[in-house]
From TrEMBL:
InterPro entries assigned to the protein according to its UniProt record, in alphabetical order: NA-bd_OB-fold, TRAM_dom
Biased composition (Low complexity): 56-67
Region called Disordered, residue ranges: 51-86
Domain TRAM, first and last residues per copy: 79-138
Name of the protein in its database record: Deoxyribonuclease
Domain of life: Archaea
Amino acid sequence: MVEIPSSLCSLFSTQIEEEDGTYLVEVPSSEVDNEALSANETYRVAILESQVSTASSMQPESQQPPSREIKNQSPSKPPVDEGEVRDVTIETVGDQGDGIAKVERGYVVIVPGAQPGDEPTVEIEQVQENVAFARIVDSDPRAL
Protein backbone atom coordinates (compact mmCIF):
# COMPACT_ATOMS: atom_id res chain seq x y z
CA MET A 1 0.00 0.00 0.00
CA VAL A 2 1.30 3.45 -0.89
CA GLU A 3 1.46 5.93 1.97
CA ILE A 4 -0.10 9.25 0.96
CA PRO A 5 1.31 12.33 2.70
CA SER A 6 -1.01 14.87 4.33
CA SER A 7 0.50 17.59 2.12
CA LEU A 8 -1.19 16.07 -0.96
CA CYS A 9 -2.90 18.87 -2.90
CA SER A 10 -4.64 16.87 -5.59
CA LEU A 11 -5.35 13.33 -6.71
CA PHE A 12 -6.70 12.43 -10.15
CA SER A 13 -6.30 9.86 -12.90
CA THR A 14 -5.12 10.65 -16.40
CA GLN A 15 -3.28 9.08 -19.30
CA ILE A 16 0.25 9.99 -20.31
CA GLU A 17 0.31 11.24 -23.91
CA GLU A 18 3.31 11.33 -26.24
CA GLU A 19 3.77 14.46 -28.34
CA ASP A 20 6.86 15.22 -30.44
CA GLY A 21 9.19 13.09 -28.32
CA THR A 22 7.94 14.43 -24.98
CA TYR A 23 5.30 13.07 -22.66
CA LEU A 24 2.39 15.10 -21.32
CA VAL A 25 0.37 14.63 -18.17
CA GLU A 26 -2.81 16.64 -18.58
CA VAL A 27 -4.19 18.23 -15.40
CA PRO A 28 -8.00 18.51 -15.36
CA SER A 29 -9.18 22.13 -15.38
CA SER A 30 -11.36 21.33 -12.35
CA GLU A 31 -8.17 21.05 -10.25
CA VAL A 32 -7.40 24.73 -10.98
CA ASP A 33 -11.07 25.81 -10.92
CA ASN A 34 -11.48 24.28 -7.44
CA GLU A 35 -8.19 25.88 -6.30
CA ALA A 36 -6.48 22.55 -5.59
CA LEU A 37 -3.69 23.74 -7.92
CA SER A 38 -2.66 27.11 -9.33
CA ALA A 39 -1.38 27.87 -12.81
CA ASN A 40 2.29 28.91 -13.10
CA GLU A 41 3.24 27.14 -9.84
CA THR A 42 5.65 24.24 -9.43
CA TYR A 43 4.43 20.96 -7.92
CA ARG A 44 5.97 17.59 -7.13
CA VAL A 45 4.16 14.86 -9.06
CA ALA A 46 3.99 11.17 -8.22
CA ILE A 47 3.00 8.70 -10.91
CA LEU A 48 1.34 5.49 -9.72
CA GLU A 49 0.64 2.58 -12.02
CA SER A 50 -3.05 2.01 -12.64
CA GLN A 51 -4.36 -1.35 -11.48
CA VAL A 52 -6.35 -1.78 -14.70
CA SER A 53 -5.37 -0.21 -17.99
CA THR A 54 -7.93 0.59 -20.67
CA ALA A 55 -6.25 -1.66 -23.23
CA SER A 56 -5.97 -4.72 -21.00
CA SER A 57 -9.49 -4.34 -19.62
CA MET A 58 -10.89 -4.74 -23.15
CA GLN A 59 -9.19 -8.11 -23.69
CA PRO A 60 -10.98 -11.28 -22.63
CA GLU A 61 -9.55 -12.50 -19.34
CA SER A 62 -8.03 -15.62 -20.93
CA GLN A 63 -5.98 -13.46 -23.34
CA GLN A 64 -4.68 -10.99 -20.77
CA PRO A 65 -1.02 -11.17 -19.82
CA PRO A 66 -0.18 -12.16 -16.22
CA SER A 67 -1.33 -9.36 -13.97
CA ARG A 68 0.76 -7.60 -11.32
CA GLU A 69 -2.31 -6.06 -9.71
CA ILE A 70 -3.10 -6.88 -6.12
CA LYS A 71 -6.05 -9.26 -5.87
CA ASN A 72 -9.02 -8.41 -3.64
CA GLN A 73 -7.85 -4.86 -3.05
CA SER A 74 -10.86 -2.67 -2.42
CA PRO A 75 -10.88 0.98 -3.42
CA SER A 76 -9.49 3.18 -0.67
CA LYS A 77 -12.14 4.12 1.84
CA PRO A 78 -12.83 7.74 2.77
CA PRO A 79 -10.25 9.19 5.19
CA VAL A 80 -12.97 10.21 7.67
CA ASP A 81 -15.56 8.29 9.70
CA GLU A 82 -19.03 9.25 10.89
CA GLY A 83 -18.85 10.72 14.39
CA GLU A 84 -15.18 11.70 14.00
CA VAL A 85 -14.26 15.13 15.38
CA ARG A 86 -11.43 17.01 13.69
CA ASP A 87 -10.07 20.46 12.91
CA VAL A 88 -10.37 21.59 9.29
CA THR A 89 -9.53 24.68 7.26
CA ILE A 90 -12.27 26.02 5.02
CA GLU A 91 -10.76 26.68 1.59
CA THR A 92 -13.72 27.90 -0.44
CA VAL A 93 -17.52 28.14 -0.55
CA GLY A 94 -19.64 25.81 -2.67
CA ASP A 95 -22.55 26.65 -4.96
CA GLN A 96 -25.01 26.31 -2.06
CA GLY A 97 -23.00 28.66 0.20
CA ASP A 98 -21.52 25.90 2.36
CA GLY A 99 -17.86 25.90 3.41
CA ILE A 100 -15.62 23.38 1.70
CA ALA A 101 -12.54 21.86 3.35
CA LYS A 102 -10.19 19.28 1.89
CA VAL A 103 -8.55 16.67 4.08
CA GLU A 104 -6.29 13.70 3.25
CA ARG A 105 -6.01 12.78 -0.46
CA GLY A 106 -8.07 15.86 -1.40
CA TYR A 107 -11.23 14.35 0.10
CA VAL A 108 -13.94 17.02 0.40
CA VAL A 109 -15.76 17.86 3.64
CA ILE A 110 -18.77 20.21 3.34
CA VAL A 111 -19.40 22.41 6.39
CA PRO A 112 -22.57 24.56 6.40
CA GLY A 113 -22.11 28.01 7.93
CA ALA A 114 -18.33 28.16 7.43
CA GLN A 115 -16.42 30.72 5.38
CA PRO A 116 -13.04 30.59 3.59
CA GLY A 117 -10.20 30.93 6.08
CA ASP A 118 -12.24 29.60 9.03
CA GLU A 119 -10.57 26.80 11.01
CA PRO A 120 -13.46 25.21 12.93
CA THR A 121 -13.62 21.92 14.80
CA VAL A 122 -16.25 19.79 13.07
CA GLU A 123 -18.03 16.50 13.64
CA ILE A 124 -18.44 14.29 10.59
CA GLU A 125 -22.14 13.46 10.28
CA GLN A 126 -22.43 11.68 6.93
CA VAL A 127 -19.73 9.98 4.86
CA GLN A 128 -20.05 9.16 1.17
CA GLU A 129 -17.49 7.79 -1.28
CA ASN A 130 -16.42 11.23 -2.56
CA VAL A 131 -17.62 13.69 0.07
CA ALA A 132 -18.52 14.02 3.74
CA PHE A 133 -20.89 16.40 5.50
CA ALA A 134 -19.99 17.88 8.87
CA ARG A 135 -21.35 20.30 11.45
CA ILE A 136 -19.36 22.85 13.41
CA VAL A 137 -18.89 21.82 17.04
CA ASP A 138 -16.41 24.60 17.93
CA SER A 139 -16.10 27.77 15.88
CA ASP A 140 -12.80 29.29 14.87
CA PRO A 141 -12.05 31.83 17.65
CA ARG A 142 -10.72 34.25 14.99
CA ALA A 143 -14.16 34.30 13.33
CA LEU A 144 -15.92 35.69 16.42
